[in-house]
Amino acid sequence: MNTQLQAIYEEYNRYIYHLCLKLTRNTTEAEDLMQEVWVKVVRYEESMQNVEHIKAWLTTICMNTFRDRYRKTMRRSKYVAFQPETLEVPILDLVPNQEISTEDQVEKDMIRSVVQEKMKQLDGIYQKTLWYFYIEQYSLIEISNVMKVSIGTVKSRLFRAKARLKEMLMADHVAAEAILPA
Hints:
By secondary structure, this protein is mainly alpha-helical. It has helices at 3-24, 27-43, 54-79, 102-120, 124-135, 140-147, 151-171, 173-179.
């Protein structure tokens, strides 16, 4: 390690460790994360010459490394179940099923019908805006072209429509109970 890297390490080592500890809330993971950060710093040593604020550069590397590790963990946990020492269930039972259960489907259909019923009670312009955005999945530009209004108008209509729909759903206690988690 050259003298410049050594000086940076000595100056910012504690800062990076505390940042890693704050992010992970676990000393072992913080040490692992910190090691990955310093490996990246060494790997990209030549780009350090163009950096004006070393602390900000190190913070960015640390945050990005943490995000990458988090995303990687989330992707793995989606497909791999944490298994005990001895496996007492068939391995296929651990593979996630992409099909929705009957209970979830019934609940989803009930929520959809409640929301659609409340949407029908909205003013026509708000109803159309929500329909285009959420059902047809038009972009804001496409909605503005179809409705012949500015994008700002579409944004404000969408905001007002969502606020009004939420207000209507919350006012109806039966609908609120169906939509809000218990």
